[in-house]
Write the structure tokens for this entry.
Amino acid sequence: MNRYTEMLVFVRAAEDGSFSAAARNLAITPSAVSKLVGRLEERVGALLFRRAHRNIVMTPEGEVFYQAALAAIEAVEAADATVFT
């Protein structure tokens, strides 16, 4: 998977409040969500979620990354729209 996919999965998990819900919405396994978020956290060098029993809470670093990820996703979608409209 690529960085864009990691960001999409991270944003979905943040918005859904759990890896399981994000997995259902993305049609992938909860394990895949966990692995992608873990890989993203390793790459950026920060814990983005505090994991509790069956739910997640964004860390302060996660909140900052969430805003940046939303902007990046919107930029990619806008670039696609210039070509595919």
Q: What stands out?
A: The chain has a mean pLDDT of 95.
